[in-house]
Amino acid sequence: MSGLAKLLVRAGIQVSGSDAAASLLTKELLRKGIKVQIGHAAEHIPPDTDLVIYSSAVPEQNPERAEARHRNIDQRNNFQFLGQWTADDRTLVVCGTHGKSTTTALAGLFLIQGGLDPTVIVGSRVPSFAEGNVRFGQSDLFVIEGDEYERHFLEFHPTAVILNNIELDHTDIFPDVATMSDAFRALLHQVKDGGLVIANADDPRVGTLIGEERSRLESRGVKIKTFGFGSHADVQIIDHVIRPGEQTFAWRDELGLVSRLSLHVPGRMNAMNAAGAIALATSFGVTLDIIRPVLASFHGIWRRFEKVAEAGGITVISDYAHHPTAIAATIEAAKQWYPGRRIVVCFQPHHRNRTKQLFFDFIPAFDKADVVIFMEVYDVTGREQKEDEAVSSRDLLEAVVRHDTERGITRPLEYAANPQEGLAALHRHRSSGDVIIVMGAGDIFEIATEIIKT
Q1: Could you say which architecture CATH assigns to the domain 306-450?
Q2: How does pLDDT run across 41-96, given as a tens digit for each residue?
Q3: Are the beta carbons of 246 and 340 closer than 8 angstroms?
Q4: 2-77 classified as CATH 3.40.50.720
Q5: Domain 86-296: homologous superfamily in CATH
Q6: What are the contacts of 25-31 at 24+ separation with CB within 8 A?
Q7: In this predicted structure, what is the pLDDT of residue 454?
Q8: Helices 268-283 and 100-113 meet at what angle, rounded to 10?
Q9: Please, which residues have CB within 8 angstroms of residue 246's CB and are 6 or more apart in sequence?
Q10: pLDDT tens digit string along 262-289?
């Protein structure tokens, strides 16, 4: 939403807005001269308003949306608007359950350095982007992080798609993974004739989907390029080496030529994110000689294994992981990046329905952490359901305690009702040498910089 505000202001359009609470982003918009009200009220809709753009977190009964209806003001959600705004441009949509933000950022950076001058819109903040979550270009290329929630990415008819992976998520929208796969299938159907699909060859659901759709796509002139560690991939990661503070890999292209690359963010998942972005950029003519230094200088984006503090032998990482697969991958990455150090995790589940539906997947996701503090579930405004009210992080704590007993493991596990209790627990458990990961998609990141303070 804040990225759209910046996009509209740059186009000379008068913008105001509101949010439920003040945040880093609302303060940033205020500094840019955009009027942002805290709280929602009908009077926040100016008299001369032509359009109300809302996020999916804002329900229909919201007073501002009700006022827009009363005054017959056009309303669109953020992706409906963005799909229409970019309808005449070439859109490159990055999608998948995991890794979208990092892949979008990397693809954008490669294309920028390659001289294609794209506009890039990311669901995080990229340190080298002056506007943080958006970068304005002069060409007709838009690199956009495509959100599968409520099938938002179907607002686009993209020139190219990166399909990272498919795993059940957003369980309030998708009852099962087959329904979720069908949303990605519909996106592939919307790729423009003569377009491009970059697909993760290592993900079995992506592989199945591409296999089922290949003939249909190729009949429309859509090129399919697969990437991954597997030898069946069109472009392949080989000779992958992880050392503390660096991972390197060789890139084998479609002609069999091999080049060495280095990356300074941790985890096999980030090697895959880089691979998807490289596969896209090279398809648009960007050479590996241009990509190599950009990749080597990349140190991540906001809340994606972001080092936010370091003192007294303690390293504090802020991370957005909130799905069981991402949690396990992040903890594994920390073990590899910081060998021999204790990994302390403070986790805030995001959305009670997701916590309930993926409950048994969450339990083993923390196996490699040395200490885990389970903060109470973050309630997502406008998305919580009455039947899920009783779901609590206490349930997850109890299940992990039983799981540890069954596998003969003893380690500190604790519950925290809110961020301040979580911070107090971290102060009790921290010791020199620890890597502390503050993890979740809610407001938990706000305590990260306080952990090493006395």
Answers
A1: Alpha-Beta Complex (3.90)
A2: 999 999 999 999 999 889 899 999 999 999 999 999 999 999 999 999 999 999 99
A3: no
A4: yes
A5: Mur-like, catalytic domain (3.40.1190.10)
A6: 26/2, 28/2, 28/132, 29/2, 29/5
A7: 63
A8: 40
A9: 262, 263, 264
A10: 999 999 999 999 999 999 999 999 999 9
